[in-house]
Amino acid sequence: MAEALKIVLYPDPRLRKPSTAIKQFTPELRELADAMLALMREYHGVGLAAPQIGKNIRLFVMNATGKPEDDKIYVNPVLIEAEDDDEAEEGCLSIPELRVKVVRAKRLQLDAQDLEGKPIHEVADGFVARIWQHEADHLNGVLLTDRMGAVAKITNRGLLKDLEEQYRRKTGGK
Length: 174
Description:
The protein has helices at 27-42, 126-139, 144-147, 150-155, 157-170, and strands at residues 47-49, 59-62, 72-91, 99-113, 119-125. By secondary structure, the protein is an alpha+beta fold. The longest helix has 16 residues, at 27-42. The protein is globular, with a radius of gyration of 16 Å. The chain starts with 26 loop residues before the first helix and ends with a helix.
């Protein structure tokens, strides 16, 4: 990749834009996914969606264990058949320092494609299912801040305002 990838930070509007389906499975797509995995590891994340690097395409990478052999890449993912609910704490690479409890489906199914366009069909529960849902939210322009309860919104108001001010300074008040 010619340019180094960077994490897009809240409140960058690219994080709110719904992503488009990937139709071409090229060597560049593989390079992008590999670079995303490296960036995710560099920032000690467990998942990273393409909008978080400023690319509004339906792609996310993840690794729930940290072992390289457990790297996963999902193209055009669709989540279905959610079961039960579970509340757990989540963070987000695009909103540093934010940690909030979020209710998500405990178990669900994911249909996607791999980097060659071949179908993937998986079922997961617990931590993996939570990562899928968090990253799929990014592909739909939904942020962790949208999933926060009222108390978490009040508690983290200062942090979010600081991030908004940093973004305004960086972009010249836009």
